[in-house]
Amino acid sequence: MKFDTIIIGGGLSGLVAGNYLVRHGQRCVIISSGQSALHFSSGSLDLLNFLPDGTAVSHPSTSVAQLVAQAPAHPYAKLGVVKFNELTAKAERLMEEWGIQLEGSALKNHYRVTPMGTLKPTWLTLKEYAVAESENSLPWKKVAIFNVAGFLDFYTQFVVDEFRKWGTECESHLIHLPALENLRKNPSEMRSVNIARLFDQTENLDLLALDLQREAGDVEVILLPAVLGITQTGTLKYLCQKTGKEIRVLPTLPPSVPGIRTQQRLRKCFQDQGGVYMLGDTVLRAEKEQDRVVRLYSYNHGDIPFVAENVILASGSYFSQGLVAAPDRVYEPIFDLDVDFVAHRNQWYDLNVFARQPYHGFGVKTTADFRGLYRGQMLKNVYVAGALLEGFNPIKEGCGGGVSVLTALYVAEQILSK
Amino acid sequence: MKQNDMTKPFDVIVIGGGATGAGTARDCARRGIRVLLIERFDISTGATGRNHGLLHSGARYAVTDQESAEECIKENMILRRIASHCVEETDGLFLSLPEDDIQYQAKFVEACLRAGIRAEVIDPKEALRLEPSANPAIIGAVRVPDGAVDPFRLTTSNVIDARNHGAEILTYHEVTELLREQDRIIGVKVLDHKTKEVKNYYANVVVNAGGIWGHNIAKLAGITVNMLPAKGALLIFGHRVNNIVLNRCRKPADADILVPGDTISLIGTTSSKVPFEEIDHMLVTPEEVDLLLREGEKLAPILAQTRILRAYAGVRPLVAADDDPSGRNVSRGIVLLDHAQRDGLQGFVTITGGKLMTYRLMAEWTTDLICKKLNITAECSTATEKLPGSREDREEVRKKIISMPLAPRNSSIARHGDLAEKLSGNTSLENSLVCECEEVSVGEVKYALNELDVNNLVDLRRRTRVGMGTCQGELCACRAAGLMSSMHKYCTRRAKEDLASFLNERWKGMAPIAWGDTLRESEYTNWIYEGVCGLGADLLRHESEKLESGN
Lengths: 418, 551
Prior knowledge:
Chain A has helices at residues 12-23, 60-70, 75-79, 81-97, 156-165, 178-183, 192-199, 202-216, 235-243, 257-272, 394-397, 400-417, and strands spanning 2-8, 28-32, 44-45, 102-103, 110-113, 119-122, 124-126, 131-132, 142-148, 169-175, 221-225, 246-250, 276-279, 283-289, 292-298, 307-313, 324-325, 330-331, 339-340, 363-364, 371-374, 377-384. By secondary structure, chain A is α/β, with parallel strands linked by helices. In chain A, the strands form seven sheets. In chain A, strands 13-2-1-16-22-21 form a six-stranded mixed sheet. Chain A has a four-stranded parallel sheet with strand order 10-9-11-12, sandwiched between helices. The longest helix of chain A is centred in the C-terminal third of the chain and has 18 residues, at 400-417. The two termini of chain A are 22 Å apart. Chain B is built from 19 helices and 24 strands. In chain B, the strands form four sheets. In chain B, strands 6, 7, 8, 14, 15, 16, 17, 18, 19 and 20 form a ten-stranded mixed sheet that branches. In chain B, strands 1, 2, 3, 10, 11, 12, 13, 21 and 22 form a nine-stranded mixed sheet that branches. In chain B, strands 4-9-5 form a three-stranded antiparallel sheet, covered by helices on one side. In chain B, strand 2 (10-15), helix 1 (19-30) and strand 3 form a beta-alpha-beta unit. In chain B, helix 1 (19-30) runs parallel beside helix 6 (151-164), helix 1 (19-30) crosses helix 10 and helix 16 runs antiparallel to helix 17.
C-alpha cells in the first residue's frame, strides 16, 4: 500500500495533520488503534495556561517568548515565537473550515466552566459550552442547571455552590423522561453516550424542550451536561430554538460526547477529501534503510507493507501507548526512537498526585523540525507530533491541545515544503 | 475546645478499631458488658486492613511454632462457620521448588498433622491440575486447609454485632490521655476529630487493643510494652491469578504467599524493622517491589506478565518477651498483659501480638480477663454464634433481592452476606452502578453511608470496594463523592477535598508500581481530575488537618 504520508495515530494531532495534507493534495492514511484523548475531552483546547516556572498566562501569544527562554526543549520553543503565532492563527481558521465551531483566541485566554463549577483558562472552546471572559466573574446573574435523573457522571451541586459564590443565582433541576427509564433497566447504561443517543431522536428532544421550558423559569441561560448530539449535529441549536432560551453545556466525566463528535467530524472531513482512515489497526514494526523508514507493518495487514515518502508519528503518550513505561525505562514502541526520561524510577513520580509529575514531561527526542532521533541520528522522513513529544507538561502548563495541533500543522507544512 | 464529661457509665472501654478491638467489643457486648469502642480513624485502618487476608490453616507455623499453628487451625475452623461471608474456602498448596529441600516436606507434613492440620501430599501434576497458575517446575506439593478472609468485612461484621448487643462505637475519636486515680485507670480523654471536642469517658476497665500503636497507648499510662514495629509490604495484582492459596514449602521467608481474594491476588510479604516514627507513613520501596515480584514469580510465573494494581505495607506488632530487653526473642503469639499484675496498675489491660487469624481468641482471652475483674460469669459465645451476614444461606438471600441485576446482586451478597437483604427495596435508580469494576450499586453505597459509619470515600472503599478495582477509583470516586454530598454526608467543598485526598491515597499505592498499564491509568486519572475537572493541590489539606476533620 503506497501513500504520500502515513500518519500513525487518529487523535487530534493525527487528524489535524491528515486534514491539512489531504487538503493540499496528498494521499494519506491514518492508522488508528482506537480511542484518543478526544474521547474524554473537556470541550476545550488549552494553548498555554502557565509557564514552566508556574507563572500564570493570560495572553499566550505574547507570553510564549518567556516560555521559549525557560524551556528550550519545549515543542513551542522549537517552533519559535513567530511560527507559534502564525500557526495558532492558522489553526483557528482551519478548524472553522473543517466544521469545528470554536470560540476563543490565542491573543487572550478565556475561561471554561469545569464539572466542579470552577473556571479554568483555555484557548479554544466548542461553541456549545459555557464559558466566561474573565476569571473573576460569570456572564450570567441567573441560571438553571439541569441533570438527567440518575446520571452519576455529572453532579449539579458542585456547580451550584461555586456559582453562588460568584453571586450568580443558580437552581438545579432533574430531568425525568420515559425514554430514560428504559435506559435504567441495565444498571451500567446511564452514561453520557447512551443518553446522547436518546436525545438524538427528535421525539425525546421535544419532550426535553418541554421539560426545560416548564422548569427553567426566568433565567438567562440553561446549563446541561454535555449529553447532546452524538450521531447528530445541531441538536443543541434545535433545543435552543424550541425553548427560546440560551442553552450551554458543561463537561461530564468521560466519555465526552462533544469530544467524540469532534473526532468523528475531523475524521469524516479527512475521508471526504480522499484520506484513508484505518480504525482498529496497530503499527507493529518498521523497516529502515539508512536514515529513512521505508516500510511499516501492521497487525491487521500482516506482511503487506505500508510504504510512503513520509511518516508522521502522532501516537499519543502513555495512555494511547505512544510511549510505554517499563519498570526500568520509557520507550517508543514502533521505531524505538530516543526518549528523554530520568533513569531511576523513584524520580518519575511525586507522591502528591497533584504535584508536577516528572513522567508527564518524558517524551520522544526530536530535531528542531520535529524529526525523530534513533540512537542520536535523525530519521529523515519520520516526523513526530503531539502528546509523545519531549519537553512539556500538558497538565501543569495547560498546553496539551496546543502542542497537538501546532506540531501537527508544523510537520504537515514541512512535508509539503519538501 | 470544649471539654465534656460523659456521665454515661461503661464497664469497659476498648481502644482500637482493628479486628481485635472489634472482636473484644463484640465479645463483651454479647456477655452483657457495657462496652465502648474508640478508634482514632476508621475501623480496620491499621494492620487489620494491611495484610494478606490469608485464612491461615496454621501450616505456615507448624514447624517453627506449634502453639501458633494449633491456635490457627482451631480459629480457621471457627471462622469458616461464624464468618462464612468473609471467608473463601480455597485450600492452600505448599509448593517445593527445585531449589527447595524436598526433605523439608516430610518434616512439614508431620508437624502439620501433630498440630491437627490436614496435610495431604499430592503429586505435582495433580497440584498443577488443581492450580494451573502454579510453577510447573515444582517437585512437591502439600494440600492444606488455607483460605482467604476479608478483614474489612470481618471487622465490620464484628462491629455490627457488637452494636446490636448494645456496644457503642466511636470512630475518628483519638485517645489523648488515660485518666488515672492513684493506681487505677478510670477512663480516657478523647479528641473527637470531627467536632474537635474533647471528652472524658469512664469505665472500670480500659483495654489497649491498639496494635502497634498500643505501644504509645501504654506509654500514656507510663508503662512500657516492648513492641517492635515490623513492616510487611505486599503487592495486589489486577486479577485473580490463582484460586488456591500458594505457599512455599520451606521455613517461612519473604514473599512466599500468594492469596486470591475477591477479584484480585496478593503477594507478600517482606519483613523489616522500622522505627516508631514511621508507622503512620508506610511507603513501599522499589527494592521491596522487586523482591516481591522476584519471589512471587517463583510461585506463579504468570505474575511476571500480570498487571500490578498497587503496593501497600502494614506494621505487625511484634512483642519482645518481658525478660528480653534486646527484643530479639520476639513472638507472633498472643500477648495478654494484665497491668494490675505486671505493673501494679488497676483497670488496664493490653492485648497485642497475635495475628488476624487469632483475633477472636485474643478477644475471648481479653473478655475472660475482664469478666474476672468485673466478677461476671457469662460464657463466651463468639465461637458458636454466627456473625451478621453469615447467618442465612446465600441462595435464600439471592431470592430476596432477585430484583437486582445479576452481577451486582452476586457482588453485594459476596460483600455483605445476608445483610445484602437490605438492598431488596432498591429502585431502578438505586440499581445504577457507581463502580463498574466492582459492581457497586447506588443502593449499596447508600446502605453503607446510612448504616456502616462511613465518613469519607476511603471508609466507603473499605465497606464496599468502591475504587478497589482495576481503575483504582477513576470515575467511581467522583460519582461516590457526588452521592455522599447529595445525601448530606458533607458539603460540596468537603466532597471535593475528600475526592482529592482519595485520589492522593490511591496514587500513594500506585506510585511504587507505576509502569505499564498502571501508569497509563494514572495519566488518565490526572487528565480527568486535574485537566478536565480542574481539581488541584489546594484541595489537599495538610495531613494533620485531614486527621482532625475525620478524613
